[in-house]
Each structure stands twice: as C-alpha cells, then as structure tokens.
Design brief:
By secondary structure, the chain is of the alpha/beta class. The protein has 15 helices and ten strands.
Length: 439
C-alpha cells in the first residue's frame, strides 16, 4: 500500500506526469490549496463528454463512464466555488447544444399556444446535456428519456448538496435514484406526461455536489449503510490555517480553451469497446491492497466502501486513457491509485464516528478519526491479551481477536511462538514500507 489513510493528513496527490496533462491544465486554473480537493470533481464533467464507448472491468462486465458522482466537502468560504468556473469551461459545448434545443422547444411552444394548443406537431423529443439545477423530478425523468436514444450522459453540478433532493422528488427517492444512476439501471418507475408519454429509462447521469462538513453529515446521515453513500466519491478539504491571503484563480484565456478543446474532442470521438489491460491489472492489485488494509484495521465497513471506490477510480482511469490518446502511462496509474485512497480517506475523515455507530452530535471535527492500523499500535512482540485490550480501547469486540490474529499470520505480518506465547512482527512487515504507507 502506497498511502497511509489512518492519519489526519490527506494522502498526497502524485505528481501530474505524462498522461495527466489535461488534469494539470485544469488544476492550473485553481488556487494551489484547491489542486488536490478539486481533482476528483473533474472526472464527472469530463466523462459526460463520452458517448458510445464501453470498457471491460476486471470482472469481465462492460461498463460506460457514466454514473460518476463526486462530492467536494470543505468549510464554508473555503474556495469550493472555484469548481464552478471549471465546470463551465468544461461544459461550454453542452451549453451551446442546450441553447439550440431550448430555442427549438420554445418555438414549438409558441406555435402551439398560437393555435390554442391544437397544433398537431408533436413536442420535440429533445434532451439537455447540462440541465439547470432547479430541474423538477418530472423534468429529470423526461430529460433522461430524451437522452436515452442518444446514449448521452446528462451532467448536473449542484453547488449545495441539498439541491439534489429536488431532482427526484424528495430525499428517499433520490437515495434510490443514486443507486440506479451508479449502476446505469432503469429508473424503476413510469411517469405520464401531458402527451401520454411514459418512461422507465436507463439513467446515464454524472454529478458533482458541494457541501460543508455539517451539511454533508446531515444529508448522508441515513444513507451510510444502504449503498448510496459508497457510490459517491468524496473529496475532503480539512480546515486550513488563517493566512490572510486571497487565493488566485486562472484567467481562462484563449490559449487555455484551445488546449482544453483538443482534449474534449478526444472524449467525444471515442466510440466502441475497449479493454485497458494495464488499468485492469492495477485495479486487481488495488483490490488486494484494500483487503490487506481492511485486515490491518479490522474494518468490514472500509472493505465494503473500497469495492465501489475501486470502480469509480477505474472509470476515471478510462477517462485518462482517452484523454491521453488511448495509451497508458505510469503517472496515470499513480493517479488512479491516489483516487482510491483519497476517496476512502475523505469518507473516514468526515463520517468515521457515524460509520462506527457513535453519537455524531456529540463528537467534534477534531475528535473524529479514520481507521487505525492496530498492528502499528502494538510493540514488535505482543500477546493476544494486548491485542484484545487494544481492540476494547478502540470499541471493537474481544471475540474478533483470534480471527484478526489468524489473518495477520496468513498475510505474513506476524509469526507465533508456542514457546513464548507471543506474536512477533515479521521482517517482511517491518521492512515493507508499502504496507505501512511510508514513502
């Protein structure tokens, strides 16, 4: 494992080397403190440009790069708003398309009204690629129906997380819809319009959301264990020092747009089915790393969350592959790996107490912490009783001590001496910096 996510410090983003030039171009338009927090939020709008391409996941299923949802979480006034101009830059072609189809719809409505609603011309079957944030539940469904025939992904950017409830008719329905969006499933509902149109459309949606820690905890409070929470990528920016300097953003000049449009063209032109073997090999390796991490901290919740973090990061890897002219590089692999750890670290920093069943209202931000590597907390030689005491201290059951010890022995983290009755950390573990998140 390359990153240690058991500390308050965020996993450091790798250098943006060969193959990640588009990400470097985009982060160059934000202040330095926003480079890492904003990166996961770039992939939903980028991926929304891809239409007509599928990629084979390591489990042999074929997936599109829709269903990517990311939520940036930072304190109020801590520069989350820098995402909006980036989104607008990425979606200029969406805006142009939407203006054209909106003008067509307005023209149809004008003619229909002029004839007292008796115009025999059917309502144009048009869909917006970048719908407004005040889209109603009925409008969301109708727009999804219009875009299904094109295989087009609609993209939403919601500057306040609570706005998402309005899309689907309430929070409970949104929770179900997010699960369907992630899985590219059908809506599971039929809705009638005034034209007598019903729909149970395939959902191709990408979404970015913004929240402060308080609103994020309130919004997802009842979604932590039903699959909704794990399907969303989180990017957390901890509170920063009061340095008294106004952050500088980019200028979005013609040279920037010329470079950006060349990348967007690659996304739009990608069609067909692909197997990105180095990416799939990396994700297989990361799945093993996630199992190792879950054993070190004895946390089934982390293990469950990691499965969808892998899929989300894999989709981002597919986008990077397209942006780089359909070739793979080491730097792209490093970015995908970081995205997995950054997502899990962010979730644990914001929601760790809630995920562990503790009283969220009684715990401050400074008191919350992520998963703890229990083996690092023990001496090089230790007894079963010492691990049992540590588990009790961390709020874990004593009954799980034996299972955890067997897992550590199996993974060659420790050995057991029947003569002394002690467990000893192996040289492989002590010298294996990758296992312990050291650089």
């Amino acid at each position: 494992m390359k990153y240690d996510i058991t500390t308050k410090a965020a996993p450091k983003m790798p250098n943006l080397g060969k193959g990640t030039e588009c990400i470097k171009l985009l982060t160059g338009q934000t202040s330095k403190d926003m480079h890492e927090p904003v990166v996961p939020l770039l992939f939903p709008p980028l991926a929304a440009h891809v239409c007509g391409a599928e990629f084979q996941y390591p489990d042999n299923t074929w997936k599109e790069v829709c269903g990517i949802m990311a939520n940036i979480v930072a304190d109020s006034g801590d520069n989350k708003g820098q995402l909006t101009p980036l989104v607008e830059a990425l979606c200029r072609d969406f805006r142009l398309h939407d203006k054209g189809v909106t003008d067509e719809l307005v023209d149809w409505q004008r003619k229909s009204n002029a004839n007292g609603g008796k115009d025999s011309t059917a309502r144009p079957n048009i869909g917006l690629w970048f719908p407004p944030i005040d889209t109603t539940a009925a409008g969301f469904l109708l727009n999804s129906m219009a875009l299904e025939s094109e295989g087009r992904t609609q993209y939403f950017n919601l500057p306040e997380v609570e706005m998402a409830d309005g899309l689907c008719g309430g929070h409970k329905k949104l929770s179900q819809m997010i699960r369907n969006i992630y899985d590219k499933a059908r809506t599971g509902a039929l809705r009638a319009t005034k034209d007598g149109v019903t729909g149970n459309t395939i959902l191709r949606v990408n979404m970015t959301l913004s929240a402060n820690p308080y609103s994020a905890r309130g919004f997802y409070k009842h979604e932590l264990f039903n699959g909704t929470f794990g399907r969303i990528v989180f990017s957390y920016k901890p509170r920063t020092d009061r340095d008294g300097r106004i952050p500088r953003q980019g200028k979005y000049n013609d040279a920037f747009y010329a470079r950006l449009d060349a990348y967007l063209a690659r996304l739009g032109e990608c069609k067909g089915r692909y197997v990105i073997r180095p990416l799939n090999k990396l994700v297989d390796q990361l799945a093993g790393d996630m199992a190792t991490l879950a054993d070190l901290v004895d946390d089934n919740i982390l293990w469950d969350l990691s499965k969808r973090s892998l899929v989300s990061a894999w989709k981002c890897g597919c986008v990077l592959w397209i942006l780089n002219g359909q070739t793979w590089t080491k730097a792209m692999g490093e970015m995908v790996e970081w995205l997995v750890y950054h997502d899990i670290w962010s979730k644990m920093q914001i929601f760790s107490d809630m995920l562990n069943g503790k009283d969220a209202d009684q715990m401050s931000e400074s008191q919350r912490h992520g998963p703890k590597n229990m083996l690092d907390s023990l001496s090089d030689s230790f007894s079963e009783a010492q691990l049992k005491a540590l588990r009790t201290q961390l709020g874990k059951s004593e009954e799980g001590t034996g299972t955890q010890l067997r897992q550590w022995v199996y993974r060659k983290f420790i050995t057991y001496s029947a003569q002394t009755g002690l467990y000893t950390k192996t040289d492989e573990y002590l010298n294996g910096s990758k296992l312990r998140g050291e650089s």
